[in-house]
Specification:
Blueprint: H1 3-25, E1 33-38, E2 44-50, E3 61-64, H2 82-88, E4 93-97, H3 116-135, E5 140-145, H4 147-159, E6 163-169, H5 179-191, H6 218-221, H7 229-238, H8 245-257, E7 280-285, H9 293-302, E8 308-313, H10 327-330, H11 334-337, H12 339-355
Parallel strand pairs: 3-4, 3-5, 5-6, 6-7, 7-8
Antiparallel strand pairs: 1-2, 2-4
Length: 361
């Protein structure tokens, strides 16, 4: 074996050891139970169930992560755990690993690709059907961060009355304002050496987070001053997932042309916003570079439901900090300033849903 090959093997071994140590050192506490759901096209999606501490609502909550994340972003660690907060308030909570993220696996575990359309047309129906079956409920509530909110809104017309309410957190559907998305996509393409951007490599630099300034797109994705250094390390060690080349290509189209449409151009997901009739809460961050306030306002204005409200988290609104993107869920005081806003909408929507007539069919 050549010297170069030996050096390469040594580097791979060291990186594997570092990755394993980081996973052990920053393992998340209090993990929910997992079950798998099979989609119509053969993917096995991992869904993580955190039951209500004392169930007060029949209507379950489905939490959906965003781009380059997995379920652990929504069911995280310590006080920064939205799923646990909601379960303590009486909701059964289900957090999903979308295809390609976390513990989800393709059919026969073969290499695959994905688009946002696949999330909307395959992942959502499979997970929603199984969550409603397990919860023995006719309707559910959707909480989505970033792309997780886009997916929920895109699926809303098909879900119809089975969607009791929706909360979007830092969710962009208008892209002429989002220069940060352009920068993140550019970085993703540069680093997508094997056709996809494997954001799980962030784990390798997790021990440095909050201690030294790290290059790359992490400042785009959050106001780091609003995330405790220790939390930053746990985030890098646990919540990142690959970005599929198909998703990046679709987002390229959205950003370049300020559209939000299917790959074939036949479905305008923005047009579906007018069909959303359930209660909705639109949450945005005052310094969110991936979903600026203008994009947040555009989403809010386009929603067809009359029962909607928008909250922008920032010092101008009396909050402790100006919120960016990821810190809307994992910020220092998100459990005090953001989570109660989410809970308020979910509580109102659940009470309304549970007083409504049964869902037809």
């Amino acid at each position: 074996m050549s010297t170069a090959a030996l050096i390469l093997l040594g580097v791979v071994f060291v990186l594997a050891c570092v990755s394993a140590w980081v996973q052990w050192r920053y393992a998340l506490d209090d993990r929910p139970a997992r079950f798998d759901v099979t989609t119509a096209d053969g993917w096995a999606l991992a869904v993580w169930h955190r039951p209500a501490v004392a169930r007060r609502f029949q209507t379950p909550v489905l939490l959906c992560h965003g781009l380059a994340n997995n379920h652990a972003f929504m069911d995280f660690h310590g006080a920064q755990n939205l799923a646990r907060f909601l379960s303590e308030a009486g909701f059964d909570c289900y957090s999903v690993d979308l295809r390609g993220a976390g513990a989800s696996r393709s059919a026969h575990d073969l290499p695959a690709d994905a688009t946002v359309d696949d999330h909307v047309h395959f992942d959502v129906p499979a997970v929603v059907d199984e969550v409603l079956r397990r919860a023995d409920a006719p309707r559910l509530l959707w909480v989505g961060h970033s792309l997780g909110g886009v997916i929920g809104l895109a699926a809303a017309p098909a879900l119809g009355t089975r969607l009791a309410g929706i909360v979007t957190i830092g969710t962009p559907l208008f892209f002429r304002f989002t220069h940060g998305v352009r920068r993140l996509l550019w970085l993703g393409h540069v680093l997508a050496v094997w056709g996809q951007f494997d954001a799980t490599l962030a784990r390798l630099v997790a021990p440095l987070a909050g201690r030294v300034a790290l290059p790359g797109g992490e400042k785009l994705s959050s106001n780091l001053a609003n995330i405790a250094p220790r939390t930053q390390r746990y985030l890098l060690a646990n919540v990142f997932a690959p970005i599929w080349k198909g998703v990046m290509a679709q987002l390229d189209d959205w950003v370049k042309n300020d559209v939000c449409r299917s790959v074939d151009g036949q479905v305008d997901y923005r047009a579906g916003l007018a069909q959303v009739r359930c209660p909705a809460l639109v949450l945005g961050g005052s310094v969110d570079l991936l979903c600026p306030m203008a994009a947040t306002r555009g989403l809010f204005d386009a929603l067809g439901t009359p029962d909607k409200r928008m909250v922008v988290l920032g010092t101008a609104s009396g909050h402790s900090a100006d919120y960016g993107h990821g810190d809307l869920v994992t910020g220092r005081r998100a459990s005090e300033e953001v989570y109660p806003e989410v809970l308020s909408l979910l509580r109102e929507a659940a009470l309304r849903a549970e007083q409504a007539p049964p869902v037809n069919g």
